[in-house]
Structures are given as structure tokens and as C-alpha cells.
Amino acid sequence: MEKKMILKTTAMSFLAVAFFVSAAFLSGCAKSPDKLYTEGKTLIQKKETEAQGMQLLESFEKKFPKDPRTPEVILAIATINQSEKKFKEAEAAYNRLQEKYPKSAEAYKGMFLLGYMYYEDMKDTERAKAVLNKFITAYPDSGLTVSAKVLLENVGLPVEQWSIVKNIVSDQSKEAGETAAKPK
């Protein structure tokens, strides 16, 4: 009799927990786009709540693909994954951004950041070159085109050997020499 009571109590506890978990899950699913977006963006600002914020933003992306904020959300997901060295996830998000929202303001940023990730984080110069060339062709007038060209010219070189760095150092040396040569 006592075993039956324990089993019954355990079963009731399990059902109660399952009910509350389901209710919590369903209430999260029923969040409005504004609530998901705002909560997700707020939570990703702090390291201790970043994972929860990522879940909300991923949910936002899936549920509201036509929302004008979705490209921004995908870019945030990609950059957070990149910063956490989750390169496959970052790459997938950058590519999703290009495929689904190629005309968005975030698409060109995502393509540039993908090329930069290949170059800087993954040390994959071939993929970096391919993406940067594609970027320059696709977005010749963007504010990041000059940066893409500089990266492309210097792929594989240490920063101190980049042509632009050498020019800056040379200019600074000339200025320092001119200043030293002027009489006081």
C-alpha cells in the first residue's frame, strides 16, 4: 500500500512538473515579435544571459522571417557565434543572411564579416580571398569596400607588413624628420 502511495505521489509530481514545463515552453512560443526581439536583444548584452538571449533571437528568426528586424537578428546571431569561436554556426548565419536577405543593410556587413572571420579567426586565406572578392564585386560602393580591398591585398601577411601600415609608418617618419629638422 505504501509503495502504491509513493508511486502515485511520484507520478503526480512528474505530471505537475511536465505541465509547468509545457506551460512555460508554450508561453515562450506565444511571445509577440516585439517581445521576443526586445528580450533577446536585451539578454545578449550580458554574458550571463547571452545564451538565453540567443535562444530568443533564434526563435524570432524562425517565427518571423518577414519581420524587417530579422536580418539584424541574424547578424547578431552570427557575430555572437563568431566571438564565441563557434565558426560553423557563425558561417551558417552569415550565409543565411546572404541567401534570404541579400538586399538588406546587414547583408553586406555579414559578407564582409564572413571574409574577415575566414581571414582573422580561421586563418583560411583561400576562403577569405573568395569572399572578399565577391564582396568587392557585389558591394563596390559600400563603406567597407576599401577595408575589403586592404585585407585582400594583404592576405597572408603580418599586419606590420601591410602596405597601408608601411605607408602610415613612412609618413610618420617623414613628419618626425621634418619636425626634428626645423629650427627652434
Would you mind describing this structure in some detail?
- The chain is an all-alpha fold and 184 residues long.
- It has a domain at 30-157: Alpha Horseshoe (Serine Threonine Protein Phosphatase 5, Tetratricopeptide repeat), CATH 1.25.40.
- Helix content is 77%, strand content 0%.
- It is built from 9 helices and no strands.
- Helix 5 runs antiparallel to helix 6 (105-121) and helix 7 (125-138) packs antiparallel against helix 8.
- The N and C termini lie far apart (104 Å).
Structural class: mainly alpha
Q: Kindly estimate the percentage of residues that lie in beta strands according to DSSP.
A: under 5%
Ranges where pLDDT stays below 50 over 5 or more residues in a row are 14-28
Shape: elongated
CATH T-level fold name of the domain at 30-157 = Serine Threonine Protein Phosphatase 5, Tetratricopeptide repeat
Q: How large is the radius of gyration? A: 25 Å
Per CATH, the superfamily of the domain at 30-157 is Tetratricopeptide repeat domain
Offer a quick outline of the entry.
The protein has 184 residues and is mostly helical. The chain has helices at 2-29, 33-43, 50-63, 70-83, 87-100, 105-121, 125-138, 145-154, 163-181.
